[in-house]
Amino acid sequence: MVKLMTFAAFRDEHALSFAVANLKERKISVLDAYTPYPVHGLDELLGQRRSRLPVVCFVAASVGCLSSLWFQVWTSAQNWPINVGGKPMVSIPAFIPVTFEVTVLLGGLVTVAAFLIRSRLFPGRQAVMPHLNVTNDGFWLAVEHQTSRLDPAALRTILENLGGHLVRTEERDL
Question: Are 37 and 148 in contact, with CB atoms under 8 Å apart?
Fold first, then answer.
């Protein structure tokens, strides 16, 4: 699907945040903001929700913890009960290192997999960026014309008045 997009570069994070707030007041939705480092408060201005990755990590780590404990208890007390040195069959202190390692391993691997799937970062996918330097030295806004209800010239004028430079309108295949 080809969409008409307008991209604007800003000098610093304050100008970018001011532009996002001003566009929000005008009921113009900003598709995305590109910054070289995290800008405090920009997520709230863009209306982005908090990530659910911590919940995914907690569930995966809990599954790893419980499954490793169950497996160790099952193997030492039920499947192959061998009394070694008079230890009890279910020796929880001996199970702690393995349980910790499996908890961290499963929590980390599932969280990374969930992040990659949710972000649609599949192998071989080409990134679509408004400019080559967008992620290392610029503060950029992307506005989609279908949601802005403005013609490209009017949107360009608004962005330039808000401090945007290098304002360009392009067709993007999203």
Answer: no
* DSSP letters for 102-122: HHHHHHHHHHHHHHHHHHT--
Domains of the chain are 2-50+127-173 (3.30.70), 53-119 (no CATH)
Which is higher by pLDDT, 2 or 65?
65
- pLDDT tens-place string over residues 22-55: 999 988 888 889 888 889 999 888 988 889 999 9
How high is the pLDDT of residue 1?
63
Q: Torsion over CA of 61, 67, 73 and 78, rounded to 10 degrees?
A: 180
pLDDT at 135: 67
* Integer Cα distance of 50 and 74 in angstroms: 39
Alpha-carbon distance of 61 to 112, in angstroms, equals 13
